[in-house]
């Protein structure tokens, strides 16, 4: 009886996760149409008042679109826990791809993205291979680097580093020169929908990025931690095992 009950609860939970994923997916199409219509209306009107209203609506729409995308990512991760595509891969290559895809965003704030990969001395300079889902690792890194860019001042430096921690482990550091994260809010930043009160109304976001990162880290059985001195930037550290 107990087993049957657990099975029923599990099925209901999975149905609910699928519902959130389907709902987020369905919401995306009307959002795209609304955006196209608003942009068209903006071009057609000469009234400053209407222009302003449309611009505010477009900003809110952008926020809603990001929120929906974040929800869809998390719901898909929740629903697909067992279906990760684990393969041996070069972690430095995935880091490079993530950096490449954010270059133009960094450019908008004149932020320098520096990728630093330490030679693997213990293995005669062979590249570091790890086991993981390539696309999901890229998503994880993109979320962290995007945050570093988003919260950093213009003309600053964001550093992405790969180095040996021990014979068996490597670490990835993502360091920025942003405002840092006060210790009082540090325990909450990986929570779903959490956003620091100081930036909530200033910098757009969904509060779902780090929740996805943490979920992906857990699925890979890696660890993530962060260190920050307010005013002096933040460092996010991922520790992961090397493939033998
Ligand atoms: P979002 O960036 O969409 O708000 P996240 O889940 O990615 O959501 O991050 C949660 C919160 O953690 C952010 O709202 C911000 O307050 C804080 N945060 C994350 N990364 C950084 C960073 N590099 N520098 C400063 N604050 C950060």
Question: What attributes does this structure have?
Answer:
244 residues, alpha+beta, five-stranded mixed beta sheet, two-stranded antiparallel ribbon, 7 strands, globular, binds adenosine-5'-diphosphate
Overview of this structure, please?
By secondary structure, the chain is of the alpha+beta class. It is 50% helix and 18% strand. Helix 5 packs antiparallel against helix 6. It is globular. Adenosine-5'-diphosphate is lined by residues 147-148, 151, 176, 178-179, 181, 189, 194-196, 199, 205-211, 234. The site of adenosine-5'-diphosphate has 20 residues, from helix 5 and helix 6.
Which helices and strands occur, and which strands form pairs?
Elements: H1 2-44, H2 48-79, E1 87-90, H3 91-101, H4 103-108, E2 112-117, E3 129-132, H5 134-151, E4 157-164, E5 169-175, H6 209-220, E6 223-228, E7 234-241
Parallel strand pairs: 2-4
Antiparallel strand pairs: 1-3, 4-5, 5-7, 6-7
Adenosine-5'-diphosphate binds at residues 147-148, 151, 176, 178-179, 181, 189, 194-196, 199, 205-211, 234.
